[in-house]
Amino acid sequence: MPTFLAALGAVLALLRTVLFALAVVLAVVCLVDWLVRTRRLSPFGPVARFFRARVDPLMMPVERRVVAAGGMPTSAPWWALAAVVIGGIVFITLIQYLADVLARGVFYASRGPSGIVFFLAWLAFRVLGLAIIVRVLLSWIPGVSPYSRWARWAFVLSEPILRPLRQVIPTIGMIDITPIVAYFLLQLVERFVLGALA
Length: 198
Hints:
By secondary structure, this protein is mainly alpha-helical. The chain folds into two domains: about 1-110; about 110-198, no CATH class. The protein has six helices and no strands. Helix 3 (about 75-110) runs antiparallel to helix 4 (about 115-140). The longest helix has about 35 residues, at about 1-35.
């Protein structure tokens, strides 16, 4: 298993390098596309014709969303670049997190049944904390339904924690602070439970 973890670390390093190179190439493409869209490059030159034929069709879904949100079509390349960079960071962070969970699982499993119970409790608290964080982040994105396929798990896991707190804790203006309180309470309970299991 340690060789597997070492290989996973090497794959993560390679993946970071590849995603960084992809982001640099995409940044150059977005810059040129922006120059073409804003007519800083001649719209009749070969570069502009190539970008209108090859790159603009790929940018159309982004452009439609930007325009629907009230933005300018010329900013579509920058939004596409931001989406790829943020998506890459989230992807790398998720892979790194899963590698960390796997490494902890291997470590605690080597300690016997008590280690496995400790790991499962630790993992349960991590998943609940992540559900609260994801729920808060999704509340900032307009139009995200709590019943959507990729958001439902966060709402299902966090609602039993947040619902009782909402009955006790008032909102501050339009801000619901129950997720913050729930996260800190979860940290306290985690320390207590993991301290008792250690």
